[in-house]
Amino acid sequence: MTYSLKTPESLCRAGLARCDITPPVGIYHRMWGAATHDRSTGVHRPLTATALALEPAPERRRPDDGAEHEIFLLAVDLCLLWGKEMTTLRERVSAATGVPVERLLVMFSHTHAAGLMGLERASLPGGELIEPYLEELAGKLAGLVRQAQTARQPATITYGLGRCSLACHRDLWDEASGQWVCGFHPEGPADDTLVVARIADFQNQTLGTIVNYACHPTTLAWDNTLISPDYPGAMREVVEEATSKPCFFIQGASGDLGPRNGYVGDTAVADRNGRQLGYAALATLEALPHPATEYHYAGPVVSGATIGVWKHEPIAGEALDDEGLWRYRRWTVDLAYRPGIPTTAEITAERERQQAAETAARAAGDEALARDCRAKAEIAIRQLVRLGSLSGKDSYPFPIHLWQIGRAIWVAVESEHYQLLQRSLRERFPQAMIVVATVVNGSLHTYLPPRDIYGTGIYQETIALLAPGSLERLIEEIAAQIGEWVGAN
After folding, report:
1. Is the pTM of this model over 0.70?
2. In whole angstroms, what is the distance from residue 120 CA to residue 127 CA?
3. Mean pLDDT of 339-368
4. Does residue 339 sit in helix, strand or coil?
């Protein structure tokens, strides 16, 4: 028997670029219903955007490929954008760069401490700064795309699997109040998979790194008034201090995952969470071998004990060609809307009822009740924005982006998926390195929980707009395509 191990790699052309996208202090910031402030009061850490341009290696490009396989990924330190704002942003970037909208994938870090950038907030304190900020953001992202295009060069992406215990289950049954809450569940299952990759040129010089991990950036909550990337900020700092190159963060399927220590106002906790993930990422990076090598068992050496020696050997020929394999597919799956979604009139009435209750509670000096009513009114306001984005049909054409580069499969989907998405795909295809990106181009239809979560009354389920079984349907669609590709190797 011949023993050998091959580290998953992608041979392609890649380019990276980075810029600061921190909003102005004083911009509308109230992301949390329980918050009592509206404007941001300062900056904890700068927000950043990082562009990653990917395309097939020239020797793998077919004559009929054209530019169809070029992909431009933008890692953006915002929570998300609503449908209208998201569409406008991508269209502006597309118009400024000539890159078709469908090949611009905005991968939100999903930090909940960056502010809520909805144009419906324009009349609120700090809301007047939102539209100018989004216009400026589009210009900055367009500049990043152009820089990343210019920076593209032959590169190898080498992947490694690590573990990090930062993410914990966050669907908790509160027996005292008889309800589900969104908080640390010490006995709940939590996917601790960490995918880390090093992007290097053909001289083995690092161009950048990738960290793909599933954990809601909800360390900082209603007591925090500072603009912050939450834990991804300190994570990037740790990795970038060691590599001197940009770290591209990809949020995984974290609908039911969050940090053990979260929902606080102390930025030091966010930094600790980030360092925990950053150190785990560095440990995984350090274990990566030299690109384009295979680890072979080389035979015995007698040295007192008989030692079994392994060596890293270069790969070439067909084995190296496999690293440059490029496949790409973009398609939509029609998913039914959830039955019984409240009407706009019903939600408007609920908003008005809660606003009236808040006014009454404040007049009575009951600030705790007033805060709760304000939070419930906020839930209604956000639901009205989402309802305004519905297609008016019985189903929604849910977009899926899937591509294979060498021995890695990349999945990019909008909305907030439970961890079942990434667990299922990785369990079905253990031979493939699978990168899972969620909240891509926003979260128009909020959460996608598993079928058995519907009817429990937990927050993620109550605001979900797609029907039970939608997540399972998407998993089957994606798995079927991966199965075709993996089987074709």
Report:
1. yes
2. 8
3. 83
4. coil
